[in-house]
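Consortium newsletter contribution from the modelling node. Members have asked for a concrete example of what our holo predictions look like. Here is one, prepared for the nicotinamide-adenine-dinucleotide complex that several groups have been discussing at recent meetings.
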Amino acid sequence: MKEFDGLAAIVTGGASGIGLATARLLAERGARVAVLDLNVDGIGPEFLAVQCDVTDDAGVTAAVAAVERGLGRLDVVINNAGIGAQGAVEANDLDEWRRVLDVNLLGVVRVARASLPALRASPAASMVITSSMAATVGLPQRALYSATKGALLSLTLAMAADHVHEGIRVNCVAPGTADTPWVQRLLARAADPVAELAALGARQPIGRLVSAPEVAEAICYLAGPRSASTTGTVLPVDGGAQSL
Ligand code: NAD
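And here is the predicted structure:
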C-alpha cells in the first residue's frame, strides 16, 4: 500500500521545476495527479493535464471542476504556481506589482477558494503552498517577490486556523534558491552561465543549490498522512539560509 493510494491531487505550476518534481513524486507514491499550468503540451499521459491560468477567476473554477470530474475526488492541493520579480520597491511600477500579486498571491487564493468545497469531502484533505526563503530572509532586490511570498506565510497560518476543524490541513514550504528551469533561465542571461551557477551555489550555506526533488520531498511529506498532526507550519528547504 502506497502513501497516496486512492487519493487525487492537483499541482499548480506542475509543468516545470518544483511542481513537476512534486507531481512525479505524488504519482510514484500512488496519487492520481492533475497538472494545472499555463501550458500543458508536454505533460505525459500519467497525469491529467488541465490548461489553467491562475489569474483567471472563471478558468480556475473550471479547471478544479474538470479535475473533480476527471479524478472523481480531490484530496491534496499543491498551490505552487508562481513567477519572479527583481528589484527594490521602486523598481517595478504599480501595474507590475498588481501583475505579480495576481499570480503569486491571488492565484493561490483562487485555487484555494475553488478547491475547499471538494477538500471538505475528503478524509485526507491537505493543501501545501509554495512560499520562499524570500518571505523570511531580507534579500536585496526582491521587494515585490518577497512581499508576495511573505503574504503566503500569513495566508497559510490563517487558513490552517480556519479549516482545522473541517479536517483540512494547510502548510507551506519555503525553498531556497533551487535548480529549476526558472533559475536556469536567469543564469542563461549571464556571460558564463556555468561559472554563474557555481558562484550562486557557493553563496548558499550548503555550498550548492537546493534541488527540485528535495523540495518535492518536503511538499509530499506535508501533503500526506505522515504529517497528519501538522498544520499551519512552514518547512524551509533552503540549504541553511535561515542561519545566515
Ligand atoms: P518554474 O518556472 O520552473 O515553474 C513554475 C511553473 O508555474 C511553470 O510551469 C509556469 O508555467 C507556471 N505558471 C506561472 N504562471 C502561471 C499562471 N499564471 N498560471 C498557471 N501556471 C503558471 O519555477 P520553479 O522554480 O519550479 O518555481 C515554483 C514555485 O517555487 C514558485 O511559486 C516559486 O516562487 C517558488 N520558489 C522557487 C524558488 C527557486 O529558486 N526556483 C525558490 C523559492 C520559491
